[in-house]
Structure formats: C-alpha cells, structure tokens
Amino acid sequence: MRVILAEDSTLLREGLVRLLVDEGHEVVAAVGDAVALVAAVEAEPPDVVVADVRMPPTHTDEGLRGALEIRRRWPDVGVLVLSQYVEKRYAVELLGGRTDGVGYLLKDRVVEVGEFLDALSRVGSGGTAFDPEVVRQLLARTSHTDSLGRLTERERTVLDQMAQGQTNATIAGHLHVSQSAVEKHVNAIFDKLGLSQTTGYSRRVLAVLRYLGS
Amino acid sequence: MEQVRTAHGAAGVGVRLLGRAVRLVVGVLLGTVTAVVDLTYLLWSGLILVPVWPHPGARRSAIREIQAGARHLAEVERWRLAAFLNSVNSADYTGRRAVEYLCLRWAVGLLGGAVLLIFAYGAVAGLVWLAEWVAGQSGPLLFAGQLVLGLIGLFLVAQGLLGMAALDRRLGRLFFGPSDRELLERRISELAVSRAGIVEAVDAERRRIERDLHDGLQQRLVALGMLLGRARRSADPERAGELLRQAHEESRSALDDLREVAWRVYPTALDNLGLDEALARVADRAGMPVTVHYRLVEQPPARVRTAAYFVVSEAVTNAAKHARAGRVVVDVAPGQNAVVVAIDDDGIGGADPAGSGLAGLARRVAALDGTFRVDSPVGGPTTIVAEFPCG
C-alpha cells in the first residue's frame, strides 16, 4: 500500500517509516506538519494517509484539520488519524457523514504493531478503524440508554468490535465463534437498536457510531 | 588633612542649616499668603453655595466647580510643602478631600503668620534696643537684660516656626496621603492580581510539563514499543536481535528523558543540597559558559529558593535559546532583608518582558511580594534582576 506519513516527532516518524517499509508498504512521503502533508497528497495521492493530530505550529489540531481537508478534496484517499487522547469531538468531526476509509487511533496503539497494521490496511482499502478505547468511552457514555441496556454481554462485545471497524469474519476469529453466530448477534443488535437492514460494514459502523455519539 | 575636612564640614553644616532656616521661613511666609487666599476662596465658595443650595442640580455642579478650584489651591500647597518644607505628598486625592484640607489649612497658615509677626515685632524691638544702646540711652545692665530676653524670644519664635512647619506637613500627609482603608484596598487588589498571576503561572507550568511528557517521553516509549513489536514480528533472528538492541538503546534514552523531565518539574537538589547546588547544576547543563556567584551565607526560605531557582533556570535557558549569548553571569547576593538574584548575558537582547516565559517569572516573583526587572535593549546585553523579600 502507498502511504504518506505526517508526524512531527522525527523519532516516531522514522520508526513508522521503517515499520511500514519492513511490512512491504511504500512510503511515498514522510512530513513534519499539516501544510506539508496536504502538499504531499496534492503532489502524489497515496492509498492512505497517517497523520498525528497535534503538529506544529500551534500543536493543537493542525493534523486533524489537514486530515479533514484531505477527506474533502481527495475522497479516495484513506485517512488514519493518530491522537494523544480520546477526543470524541475529533472522531465525530472526522466521520462527517462518511465512514469509508477513515480511522482514529490513540497514538500508543502503534505499539501494538499488528493491530496498527490491520487498522491501516482496513482504512487503506476503504474500511474504518476506531480505537477500542474510543469505542469503550462512547459505549460507556451511552450505556444508560434503554436500547443499549437491552443488549446481552455477548452482543455488547460484538458491538464493540463492530464499532472498531472489524468484519464479521475477524470478530468471529477474535471471539472464537462461527461467522454465522456473529451474524446472528449483529442482526439481534440491529433489531434492538432499531436500525434498518443495511449493506456494507462501513455503513454499519456509521450507524453504530452515530447511535453511540447521539 | 583630617582637620581641614572637619573645618570644611563645619562650614558646610553651617551653610546648610542657614539654607534650611531660610527655606523654612519662606515656606511659612508663603503659607500665610496662601492661607489668606484659601480662606477667601472658602468664604467665596460659601457665598456661592447659599443661593444654589435649594436646587440639587445647581448645587451639585457648584460643588463640583468648588472642588475643582480647591484642587488647584491644594496643588499650590503641595508644591509649597515639597519645595520648602521637604514634604512630598501623593497627587492621589479627591476634590472633597482638597476642600476638607483647605478648611483646616487656612487656620494653620494664619497661625504661622502670627508667629512670623511676633518674629518681626521682636526683630524691630531688638533694633530699637540696639539703637538706644548705641545712642547711650541704656546702661549695660539694661542692654544685657534685653539681649537675654531677645535670645529667649528668638528661641521661642524658632520653635514656633518649626512647630508650624511640622503641623503643615502633618496636615498635608493626613489629607493627601492615602487613608488606611485605601492602603488596605490597594493591598487587596495587589494580592488579587498576584493570586491570579500565580494561578496562571502554575497553569503554564502544567502545560509545559504536559508538553515535555508527550512530546518527549511518550514519543520515545512509542518508538521503543514499535521496535519491540517489529522484533517480535520479524522472522529473521538476526534482524530481531538488531531490533532488540535498538530497543534497549531506546529504553535508556527514555530513562534519560524521564530524569530530565522530572528535574525540570522540580529539582530535588533544592531541598536536599540547597540553592547553590541546584544553580551549579543549571550552569552545568546550560551548554555554554555560565558563572554563578553565590554569596548567601544561609539558605533562603523554601519558597524563595524555588522561585529564585526558576528565575535563574528560565533566564539561562532564554539566554542560550533566544539571545545567542556567549556567556552568562548569575549573581545571588543578600540584600536588605532580601535575596537579590541578577542574571547578565552578553547576547543580542530584545527580550520581551510580556513574553510567556518572562511574564510567568514576573508573576511568580510578584506572588512573593518581590520585584522583577528586565533590561534588554535590542542589541543586548540583557540583565534580569529579581529581588525576594525574606522577612
């Protein structure tokens, strides 16, 4: 996959480049701020962009602004944002109506190399990837609502995985159950949450996150 | 040599005393003149007020006018007190206070005039007695008696003049000086400002610590984790070994960073080894020549120690980072019930006292009732002086 990196810490940027190259990805460009990021995408649109939220000059949300601009101008480019903290507002802004090719991970998640690479390829191929911590917090915030309270323990676990952007097959693998069992849980969740039948798992994530974020 | 100086000294003292006496007499004399003016003004004001009193609007504007006029007269009195009676008063008073002052002031002025009259009378009497003695109309006994009487009179008049001047000064201080209440109010607003300042300074400090942790330490730990992750995924044992070696290096760097951050949050040396040792470490780590002259005998109180440390540390960092200084001299010296910390560098100057770092230091010093001064002309050099009271 062709990747553009934006991370202001040289240490981390170099580390990420090595990691991606090791795994057989092509790093088109690795830059240190959001302006350079947009310029790099303009010069040669990659499959996916990995951007830190906090970058120079003000170290607040430049990276996110850059990511939003890329999503607006180059809808085909996947965007994976790395954040220091869980900021629900950033996650919601990033979704902005479309959940294809978008991800929001805590920066520390990079340490789980396998998870990070999975998330990257999901986003690069038009899927979604949300940090388990983001999902956990969103779930915790809305757990008081009645419809969510009706979910069983197992359905909650499945919903949690769904919200992260996992496919049914992956969820089945994680939970050591058959794929049809997962499909059964998913249907039960949609029923209980009052969501209509939809196709494609990114729209499913959109529905779940919309519901959770409401 | 010593005697010459003494003789000069005596003459000098004599001239100074005479000068002061003349100024005193002129001051009291002028005070009598102004007293007449003041009294006239007050009487005239009273006359003005009588017809307008029943009409609140007119009364208010008349009072306003009268107070404005009273301020002008009070300003003249303040000038006289400062020029002749060595009494400087604040210009911070209301029109109402000016009127109140004039109401008492005219009496003091006229009393001073009475003393001067007695003095004039005595002087004339003395001249008459002298003329009579010269003309042979009085015997030596009578003249000696008159001389003693005259000297006693002169002494009393001098005392009277001094007394009137003292009364004049007192009156000025009473009305022009801020009242106890105003002093308290000023102190309260000073405290409110410094409290807000210290809260801001603490918040800025916290932000800095957060940045230190996230931009330094966290990045290192993530990089370390990434190296370990790559090593675990690597199929090639040699490659994995190399990655582990790098990870080991990285963990050492992370520890160094952690120590650095912890030191910047609060150097434990301040408590264990004292300000001099902590400052010596600042000098060691500055990355350029820093000379510390530490001239305190005892360790200052903990709050002063901490604030002084941060002032020096920030100033040295600034000198290295922004001022492109070649060398820095830090001087920590005892002042009057205070510790004075001065930092000089030979850099390019132009430091902005309103910038976040320096403003934070100023707030920190102000919270301890200290003073903070930055002198940094463009082109340099820069001098920063902080004085901490240690009462």
Automatic annotation (TrEMBL), chain A:
GO molecular function: DNA binding
Highest taxon of the lineage: Bacteria
GO biological process: phosphorelay signal transduction system; regulation of DNA-templated transcription
Transcription regulation keyword on record: yes
Location of 4-aspartylphosphate modifications: 52
InterPro entries registered for this protein in UniProt: CheY-like_superfamily, NreC/VraR/RcsB-like_REC, Sig_transdc_resp-reg_receiver, Tscrpt_reg_LuxR_C, WalR-like
All residue ranges annotated as the HTH luxR-type domain in the record: 144-209
UniProt name for this protein: LuxR family two component transcriptional regulator
Lineage, broadest ranks: Bacteria, Bacillati, Actinomycetota, Actinomycetes, Micromonosporales
